[in-house]
Design goal:
Distance between the termini: 39 Å
Oligomer: single chain
Low-confidence stretches: 2-15
Strand order of the largest sheet: 1-2-3-6-4-5
Largest sheet: 6 strands, mixed
Order of helices and strands: HEEEHEHEE
Radius of gyration: 18 Å
Number of strands: 6
CATH architecture: 2-Layer Sandwich
Structural class: alpha+beta
CATH superfamily: RutC-like
Helix content: 25-40%
CATH topology: 60s Ribosomal Protein L30, Chain: A
Number of domains: 1
Number of helices: 3
Strand content: 25-35%
């Protein structure tokens, strides 16, 4: 390898290590860290939020699906706020539904939460979720 290639390799390797070192775990106030994941990771000006379900602080899921979706979005909002961001910073959303028939109900709540211009979104119907709820949402936000 020539001298130029080594310099380029070192620059790329150094920047990767730098990004890794800049990772900050985001935990909303009052949240109980659990599981083998972080609720949010802020790296640079980008926030990655783990899938959030519709459980409240006591771990209960509302019986009403619309209330479950709202709680799910409120959980995301708590992570965003802990990182100094809001819904307006969200650029990408992934929605996982356990029941295709609930899409319109989810969408009705979703559109009250995310205003125009709305983030990109992928919605997937899954055979089952790991948790006990009917929905899980993950987002990426950028300052």
């Amino acid at each position: 390898m020539n001298k130029f290639a080594w310099v380029v390799l070192l620059v790329f390797a150094g920047s990767g290590a730098s990004l890794y070192a800049q990772r900050k775990i985001i935990v909303p106030p009052g949240a109980k860290p659990g599981g083998n994941y972080s609720q949010g990771i802020l790296t640079g000006d980008t926030l990655f939020i783990s899938g959030q379900g519709g459980e409240d602080a006591a771990g209960k899921i509302p019986a009403n699906f619309e209330a479950e979706v709202k709680q799910c979005l409120d959980n995301i909002d708590a992570v965003l706020k802990a990182a100094g961001m809001s819904q307006a910073n969200v650029v990408s959303v992934q929605v996982y539904l356990a029941d295709r028939a609930k899409f319109q109900q989810m969408n009705a709540v979703y559109t009250t939460y995310f205003k125009d211009p709305r983030p990109t979104r992928t919605t997937v119907v899954v055979a089952g979720l790991v948790g006990p709820g009917n929905i899980e949402i993950t987002v990426t936000a950028k300052k």
